[in-house]
Specification:
Layout lengths: L2 H7 L5 E5 L6 H14 L4 E5 L5 H6 L9 E4 L2 E5 L2 H20 L6 H11 L2 H18 L4 E5 L3 H8 L1 H25 L10 H23 L5 E7 L3 H16 L4 E9 L11 H21 L3 E6 L7 H13 L24 H5 L5
Parallel strand pairs: 1-5, 1-6, 2-4, 2-5, 6-7, 7-8
Antiparallel strand pairs: 3-4
Helix pairs in contact: 2-12, 4-5, 4-6, 6-8, 8-9
This protein binds adenosine-5'-triphosphate (ATP) and magnesium ion.
Length: 356
């Protein structure tokens, strides 16, 4: 089955994720998949929580922290700014304290506590997570493509349950600390009895949102997770291990995409020895991939002769991933090595309707 056939055959899929080690092509494929699905007339949001602003790079637009930005017809992209969210949290906490105790100014001791709590890594994670939940719960798109950070982190996000627990522990901890402060500010207190309920309600609300989004992440009807790998020994090993681990978290792994395949047809040309050797080595690894993942390999994407940036290049990758139906390529094709390869082992193999 090809990747294009996969989406045709699974119309319920709404959430798409590419996972894999750092630098293998997750962002590139997220952008290309967004491009393809948008060209098919679907409204698509590609979003990322990567502070490296990699979607800004590939779309050649500064979208970091700007909300959902329209990149092309039907194609939207969003880069979440966790810091901004943390600042908003802090403000919320301050406002609540001011409200609860009828204060004008937050006491220094409490302010210090707010600052210290915000510096905790768990705070950043929960801020990011909260934004992701917002996006998903809000709705409005046919497809959501979640451009993940490298494997380890991705797993962390995917094992949401533990993140929630950490989050709720933290809130409970904060709650306990607040109780201490209650004593400190007791002299200026106004109300106190309903505040316990309020916090409990909030926790329940958070829990409900969390359940909804974690349900989505492990829902094999709506969510599809694809692993990106390259024909290299270590990467194959790591991918195999990661896939086992992900399966334990019930992540619906729907296929594998092999990236950076050097077109075999180059062997017919007068190419340097080292390139010849590289192709030979890749052939061995591609065989291993074939044995190991077989039909679950949904596309093979060639090595291009430049980084993938801008719509023109994204379109080329989309073509390699999905075949010629990848919508109109708006500009003249760029000179891209392998982009027009006709070898069965490259992206064009899958372009012809899926060689596997
Ligand atoms: N087939 C390809 N041919 C040429 N360059 C590629 C190809 N695929 C990806 N690249 C380039 O490799 C680099 C890494 O790709 P990308 O950013 O998509 O990886 P990533 O998995 O998202 O990385 P990270 O784990 O850091 O988020 C980018 O510069 C991208 O343009
Ligand atoms: Mg990336």
């Amino acid at each position: 089955m090809s990747l294009a056939d996969f989406f045709k055959a699974n119309p319920d899929v709404r959430y798409i994720m590419y996972g894999g080690k750092g630098g293998l092509g997750k962002t590139t494929f997220s952008a290309a998949t967004g491009y393809y699905l948008a060209s098919q007339g679907y409204k698509v949001l590609v979003f990322s929580v990567d502070p490296q602003a990699s979607l800004s790079d590939i779309f050649e637009r500064n979208i970091f922290g700007q909300g959902e930005v329209e990149i092309a017809p039907n194609l939207y992209a969003c880069e979440i700014d966790a810091d901004k969210r943390i600042k908003a949290y802090q403000e919320e906490v301050r406002a609540r304290i001011r409200d609860m105790y009828g204060m004008e100014q937050i006491p220094e001791e409490i302010e210090n506590y707010i600052q210290a709590a915000s510096a905790e890594p768990a705070m950043e994670e929960s801020a990011i997570f909260d934004e992701v939940v917002n996006i998903v719960v809000k709705g409005g798109y046919d497809y959501y493509i979640y451009d993940l950070v490298p494997l380890g982190h991705a797993l962390y996000y995917l094992s949401m349950a533990s993140v929630y627990d950490a989050w709720i522990d933290r809130i409970t901890g904060l709650r306990e600390q607040m109780r201490e402060y209650d004593k400190v500010v007791a002299t200026v207190r106004r109300q106190k009895s309903t505040e316990e309920d309020q916090i409990l309600n909030e926790l329940l609300y958070i829990k409900e949102r969390i359940n909804k989004s974690s349900g989505i992440l492990t829902d094999s009807k709506q969510t599809s997770f694809f692993f990106v790998l390259t024909p290299e020994e270590m990467i194959i090993l790591d991918t195999t291990k990661a896939a086992e681990l992900f399966a334990k978290f019930s992540v619906p792994i729907r296929g594998y995409i092999v990236n950076r395949v050097i077109p075999r047809r180059l062997l017919e040309d007068n190419i340097p020895e080292y390139l010849r050797n590289r192709i030979g080595m890749q052939a061995g690894h591609l065989e291993t991939i074939e044995k190991q993942f077989g039909e679950r390999v949904l596309a093979r994407v060639p090595e291009f002769d430049s980084d993938i940036r801008g719509m023109k290049n994204i379109a080329r990758v989309a073509e390699a991933l999905f075949g010629n139906g990848a919508g109109p390529v708006r500009q003249a094709p760029a000179v891209v090595a392998g982009g027009g390869a006709d070898d069965g082992d490259t992206g064009d193999g899958s372009a012809e309707g899926g060689d596997r």
